[in-house]
């Protein structure tokens, strides 16, 4: 599955199996690291559901100058502010003001930061000052999405759940209460 952020379109990707020259859309990797392709006929309904899921997941994702937009504050005059993040940049956080017209945003007046808390504070300050100055109403504030836990954190959490379930399911005999004998 491939989703193009620019055109906002999805496609089922096909490739050629180098060993057979046949087309395939599903593969597995064996112990030697070789890919083995097969062609799977996907029902059109399933393909459309997958495309819809991609569009839903990617709906509010946007990239500007290499920065992924993490938070958007939009006012009723089609203006607002965003917080962007690019871990590879010297200043990995930025806040921009923007104007929105016909679904397209023009970003300007960037404030660049090395600390996420400073960037968040700057975003809030700019939005509050803009709202006070222009007397506009807030239409949307996407907030900061929660960061995904690392794989190591997920594994620790899973282990804790397994241990908790194990403790709850120890085998106990159901015996009638015999009082104080």
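^ structure tokens above, recovered residues below v
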């Amino acid at each position: 599955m491939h989703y193009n952020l620019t055109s906002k379109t999805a496609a089922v990707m096909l490739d050629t199996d180098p060993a057979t020259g046949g087309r395939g859309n599903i593969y597995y990797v064996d112990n030697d690291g070789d890919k083995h392709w097969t062609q799977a006929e996907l029902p059109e309904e399933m393909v459309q559901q997958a495309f819809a899921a991609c569009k839903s997941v990617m709906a509010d994702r946007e990239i500007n100058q290499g920065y992924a937009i993490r938070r958007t504050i939009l006012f009723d005059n089609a203006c607002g502010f965003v917080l962007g993040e690019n871990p590879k940049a010297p200043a990995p956080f930025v806040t921009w003001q923007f104007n929105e017209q016909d679904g397209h945003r023009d970003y300007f007046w960037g404030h660049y930061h090395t600390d996420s808390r400073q960037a968040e504070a700057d975003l809030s300050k700019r939005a509050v000052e803009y709202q006070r100055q222009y007397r506009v109403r807030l239409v949307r504030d996407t907030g900061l999405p929660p960061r995904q836990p690392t794989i190591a954190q997920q594994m620790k959490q899973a282990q804790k759940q397994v241990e908790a379930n194990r403790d709850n399911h120890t085998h106990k005999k159901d015996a009638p209460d015999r009082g104080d004998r």
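Helices lie at 44-58, 116-134, 151-168.
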